[in-house]
Design a protein that fits this description.
It contains eleven helices and 16 strands. It folds into two domains: 131 residues, Up-down Bundle (Four Helix Bundle (Hemerythrin (Met), subunit A)); 200 residues, Rossmann fold. The protein is α/β, with parallel strands linked by helices. It has a seven-stranded mixed beta sheet. Strands 11-8-9-14 form a four-stranded mixed beta sheet, covered by helices on one side.
Length: 364
């Protein structure tokens, strides 16, 4: 299994996703600021992986504090959490992990400093281990939606590299493959940073899952030719009504899938849901540096001085989403009621028996 982020002898180890697919190497962070930098510069990316990295980074920062008085430790802890919160604005899992570490800090308050430090390290490791198990459950539920012979389109990278291991959207694909289903995956290259070409294609090759790389602009043509049976992607934040923020280009795929009456699925853990936001219009969308668009692989591809707009994510309205695959089961429409119910009291939803739902004009 690919280990994306893990705690190792008092340090946080991260696979360097910027180096893939040419080189598989790990960055060992011994200072929490190095973890912050790794999140900002995409050494580690993918909403669940960012959350795990932040939890471990917070534990790392606290573990290096001197034997402070409780009030000083609290001030330093809150400052560290604030630095992680400022790294990337869209991924809900980042803030979910920070909130969870804050709750654990409060539970540990009053104990000796060393006990608080070890307790926070244990919590971060727990978050990592839980993420892998959650992804496996997502795969278990999602594989029921995949039929042998299906041709699946995916966008960006929602695999083991985007999580602590196994993956969300790729977890569904991986689980279907492990079940023995004959599948083929079409991988969008995912401009401008090429997470599909560099990361998803690399993961699928390692797993020996048949995959074909395409440019983002080819997806509609493949749908028109009848060569796509379903689309499954990950998510960075999901609002209370099912509106979903994911890698730029996802919305276009959802619109194309609806036009061609192809099921469009989101695969994400409950930690990606943000029920405090009524709709996707409230989700903050990160804008990244112009250099990601004006150059590729270190080679400039655009003229000097050209204006650039580079949002990292877009918003897919819930009406374009067929269903959302979670660790507790498959959430179907109406999303607002279903999401509200499961977020108030998570309990397993009925396991899908492979039905893709009625693709009506409003749902397809």
């Amino acid at each position: 299994m690919i280990r994306t982020v893990f705690w190792d002898r008092g340090a946080v180890s991260l696979i360097d996703q910027k180096a893939l697919p040419n080189e598989e190497k790990y960055l060992v962070c011994r200072d929490y600021r190095e973890v912050c930098a790794a999140i900002r510069d995409l050494t580690v990316r993918g909403a669940p992986a960012i959350g795990v990295a932040a939890a471990m980074g917070i534990a790392l920062g606290v573990s290096s504090l001197p034997q402070n008085k409780p009030v000083e430790m609290r001030r330093a802890f809150n400052s560290i959490c604030g630095e992680f919160a400022a790294t990337r604005p869209t991924a809900r899992n980042l803030f979910w992990a920070i909130e969870r570490m804050k709750r654990r800090f409060e539970e540990l308050s009053g104990q000796p400093v060393e006990a608080m430090k070890s307790g926070l390290i244990a919590e971060a490791i727990r978050i990592c281990e839980e993420d892998i198990e959650i992804n496996r459950k997502i795969g278990l539920h999602g594989r029921a939606l995949v039929r042998s012979g299906d041709r699946i389109l995916t966008h960006c990278n929602a695999g083991a590299l985007a999580t602590a291991g196994y993956g969300t959207a790729l977890g569904v694909i991986r689980a279907a493959h492990e079940e023995g289903k004959r599948i083929e995956v079409y991988v969008d290259e995912t401009r401008p940073v090429l997470q599909g070409a560099r990361l998803t294609a690399w993961e699928l090759a390692r797993e020996k899952i048949p995959a074909t790389l395409i440019t983002d602009s080819m997806a509609g043509f493949l749908m028109q030719q009848g060569r796509i049976d379903l689309v499954v992607v990950g998510a960075d934040r999901i609002a209370a009504n099912g509106d979903t923020a994911n890698k730029i280009g996802t919305y276009s795929l959802a619109v194309l899938a609806r036009s061609h009456r192809i099921p469009f699925y989101i695969a994400a853990p409950l930690s990606t849901f943000d029920p405090s936001l009524r709709s996707g219009g409230e989700i903050p969308i990160e804008e990244r540096a112009a250099g990601e668009v004006t150059a590729c692989g270190g080679v400039r591809t655009a003229p000097e001085g050209v204006a650039v707009y580079n949002p990292a994510f877009d918003l897919t309205p819930g009406r374009y989403i067929t269903a959302i695959i979670t660790e507790e089961g498959i959430i179907r429409k109406p999303f607002r009621q279903a999401i509200g119910r499961i977020m108030r009291s998570p309990s397993p939803l009925p396991l899908s028996r492979g039905g893709r739902g009625n693709l009506s004009e409003s749902d397809a």
